[in-house]
From TrEMBL:
UniProt protein name: NAD(P)-dependent alcohol dehydrogenase
Segments forming domain Alcohol dehydrogenase-like C-terminal: 201-317
Gene3D superfamilies in the cross-refs: Medium-chain alcohol dehydrogenases, catalytic domain, NAD(P)-binding Rossmann-like Domain
InterPro entries membership: ADH-like_C, ADH-like_N, ADH_Zn_CS, GroES-like_sf, NAD(P)-bd_dom_sf
The protein's required cofactors: Zn(2+)
PROSITE patterns: ADH_ZINC
Organism annotation: Actinomadura geliboluensis
Length: 371
């Protein structure tokens, strides 16, 4: 079938909206009419080579839409279902079987292999230019910078028909990453202290989640006053501008010592060091932000040896259905107002959306598809 998609032809190239041909769903697959898809920092760093997605390709991995058709053997979703497209996974490796499909042993291939992960056509792209040349597909199992996406049906999360479908795509990655880092990775103790470095979309989602936890001290650190103001509205008990004061010292002043938990949401190595230094013995620093490929960091050995934990997290951990479903419910209940981070753009305006995001004018750009 013919679809409209934003194609990146080569490393660092701009997005170009054009017509492509997309395969019909085969065994285990589903065709989703994309209503909207979020733009995530991972899309941008992949375009510049920090994830090894082959080119030319269609990116996009925060899609939500309506199931149009399913292939043989699909029983859990049906045409007409409203869905968020979750992360792909093999379903059979140890991590998948243990309930952690975000850490599928085939994750690299699943998110950036450029073709199907599973099925009789595994490894093949589902997209072609009208002349027949292949365009790599299945970025994070979906390539949803397009009007339609072909995905593995088991990755889909069905949401209520009355849910705001054009809003829910970011629950597939960015928003669930911040919230899931709190809910699944940290699980804060009663009365604990938590500091979030970077109050972008991911960091603000973490602040919203922390407000729903028993943590009683929630600190947001960012250079932008507008983001710190939002963090306060979303539940931060304290805010720090690192341009005005040493954030590590200020965290220790607020907490009367080290914080219990820190979340690093920027991917900036110097900020990562600050986040790690903000927690002390038996404290936990969670790495969330995506640094450039090959980035390395160092920590003081003795300070870390004394019971400090530094852990990475992907996509909020856990299973997509549970996390996405819970966040959608919390939003419906008015307890998780991530809609306030979103600004909508048409697919044709993808470059403007990216520019606005880079300048900090928008926290979570979302592309709406015109069908």
């Amino acid at each position: 079938m013919r679809v409209t998609a934003a194609v990146v032809d080569e490393l660092g190239a701009p997005f170009r909206v054009e017509e492509l041909d997309l395969d019909e769903p085969g065994p285990g697959e589903a065709l989703v009419r994309v209503v909207a898809t979020g733009i995530c920092h991972t899309d941008e760093i992949t375009r510049h080579g920090d994830l090894p997605m082959p080119f030319p390709c269609v990116l996009g991995h925060e899609g939500a839409g309506v199931v149009e058709a399913v292939g043989d053997g699909v029983i859990d979703v049906r045409p007409g279902d409203h869905v968020v497209i979750g992360w792909p996974s093999c379903g059979t490796c140890r991590n998948c079987r243990d309930g952690e499909p975000r850490y599928c042993a085939r994750l690299g291939e699943a998110v950036a292999g450029g073709g199907r992960l599973l099925g009789p056509r595994a490894g093949e792209s589902a997209l072609r230019r009208p002349g027949g040349s292949s365009v790599h597909s299945h970025f994070f199992g979906q390539s949803s910078f397009a009007t339609y996406a072909l995905t593995w049906a088991d990755a889909l999360v069905v949401v209520p028909r009355d849910a705001p479908l054009e809003l829910l795509g970011p629950l597939a990655c960015g928003i669930s990453t911040g919230a899931g880092a709190v809910f699944n990775t940290l699980q804060p103790r009663t009365g604990s202290s938590l500091v979030v470095y970077g109050a972008g979309a991911v960091g603000l989602a973490a602040v919203m989640a922390a407000r729903l936890s028993p943590a009683t001290t929630i600190i947001a650190v960012d250079l932008h006053a507008s983001r710190l103001a939002l963090a306060t509205e979303f539940g931060a008990t304290h805010v720090i501008d690192p341009g005005e004061t040493d954030p590590v010292a200020e965290v220790r002043r607020i907490c009367g010592g080290p914080a219990d938990y820190a979340l690093e949401c920027t991917g900036v190595i110097s900020v990562l060091r600050q986040a790690a230094e903000s927690v002390g013995m038996l404290g936990t620093c969670v790495l969330i932000g995506g640094a450039p490929a090959g980035a390395e960091f160092t920590l003081d050995h003795l300070d870390t040896l004394w019971g400090k934990r530094v852990v990475g997290t992907l996509g909020g951990s856990g299973r997509s259905g549970v996390l996405i479903g819970a966040l959608a419910d919390l939003h419906r209940q008015g307890r998780f107002p991530f809609d306030r981070l979103v600004r909508y753009y048409d697919l044709a305006d993808i470059d403007r959306a990216l520019d606005d995001s880079r300048r900090g004018e928008v926290l979570k750009p979302v592309l709406r598809m015109n069908h």
